Amino acid sequence: MQTDYMYISKCSENGDFETGQLTNFQDIQLSPSSGVLNYGQALFEGAKAYRRASDGKLLMFRPEENAARMMVGAERMCMPCPSTDQFIDAIKQTVLANRRWIPPSGKGSLYLRPLLFGSGAVLGLAPAPEYTFLVFASPVGNYFKDGLGPLNLYVEDEYHRATMGGAGGVKSITNYSPVYKAIKRAKSRGFSDVLYLDAVNKRYIEEVSSCNVFIVKDGKISTPSTKGTILPGITRKSIIEMAPDLGFETEEKCIPIEELLEADQVFCTGTAVGVATVGSVTYKEKRVEYKNGEGLVCEKLHSALRGIQEGMVQDNRGWVVEIDS
Ligand SMILES: *Cc1c(COP(=O)(O)O)cnc(C)c1O
Fold it and tell me: What is the domain partition of the chain in residue ranges?
C-alpha cells in the first residue's frame, strides 16, 4: 500500500551522501543506462516500525543492524553507503512522516524498505558514477492473523539461490528474481515457499526465499551457519541470542536434509514473517509433517520476540528504539 512520503538522498563519485529529503511518494527518473537497470547494482533492506500498546509510542527493532548489513552489502557491490546515523535518521523521518499509516498495536506494522542503487549512467561494465539511497514505507498486516498458518515448504534441488563467492550473503537485488521460477513452481503445487539446498552437494539446507530456517530436535535448536550463501538475518541473530534465556541450547552448524526431515519442529525467521512455524517439508516425493501449536519451542520464541518488538515485554538488550521521543 502506498504511503504519503519517501526519503531520498543522492551521492556522487566523492562518496558522500547529501542531506536527505522527504518528498511525496512518487515515481523516480532513471537513465536507461543506469547501473541498477543494466547490471543490477543495488541492495535493499527490510525493517518494521510498531506502535507500542501501552502509550502509542513508535518503536523500531535493531535498526543499526540493518544499517550495518547495508554497509557490508555496499562493500560487496562496490557502492558507497550512507552512515549508520544517516540510515537510522532516514528510517525515522520516513516513519514519522507516514505515521498515520501505522496500524494500531497488534494489528500490524509499518514496513520500511530502504534501497541503495546505482542511479548514474554507465554503459561499460563498471560501478555507476552516482548512487541513490531511498526509503519508502507500506503498512503491513499481521502475518499470522491474516490466516497464513504453518508454512509448507518444498525442498528445491534444481534451482539454487546462492553459491560460494556470489552475493547470497548480502541483500543484493540480484538474489531474488533468479528464484521466481522455483517459487512459482512450488506455489503452483500448493506449497508456501521454497527451501534451498547448497549448490555444491545439494544436501545441506540453507534457507527459504526470504527467511532463515531453524530446526528443533530433542529441545535443542540449530540453524545453518552463514558462510556466504545464507543471508544473515537480524531475526535469526536475535533468536540465537535470546533462545538461551528461554532455556534452549542453540547451535549454528551444517544441517543435512536428512536431519531436517527427522527434526521435531521446524521454523523460519525474518522481518516479514517474524517466527513462523513450518507445518511440512516435501523433499523429492517425501512429505514430512511437524508438530505445531501452543507450548512448542517455535511458539515460545515467537511470543518472546514479538513481545520485545512491540514493546509489551521489557527489552533488556537495547534492541528497541523509540523514535518519537
Ligand atoms: C531479508 C532476508 C532474510 C531475513 O532477514 P531479517 O533481517 O531477519 O529480516 C532471510 N533470508 C533472505 C534471503 C533475506 O533476503
Answer: 5-140, 151-309
Model confidence at 182, pLDDT cuts 50, 70, 90, reads very high
Q: Which three cell numbers stand for residue 180?
A: 521466481
Single out the residue of 32, 3, 45, 34 nearest to residue 270, CA to CA: 45
Q: Quick one: CATH architecture of 151-309?
A: Alpha-Beta Barrel (3.20)
* Protein residues with CB under 6 Å of any ligand 1 atom: 46, 171, 207, 210-212, 231, 233-236, 269-271
Q: Contact at 8 Å (CB) between 88 and 96?
A: no
Q: 187 catalytic, yes or no?
A: no
pLDDT tens digit string along 268-310?
999 999 999 999 999 999 999 998 777 789 999 999 999 999 9
Residue listed under C-alpha cell 514496513:
111
Positive/negative CA dihedral, 291, 293, 296, 298: positive
Q: Which of 171, 181, 184, 227 is catalytic?
A: 171
**Residue 76 parent element (H or E):** helix 63-76
Query: What CATH class has 5-140?
Result: alpha beta
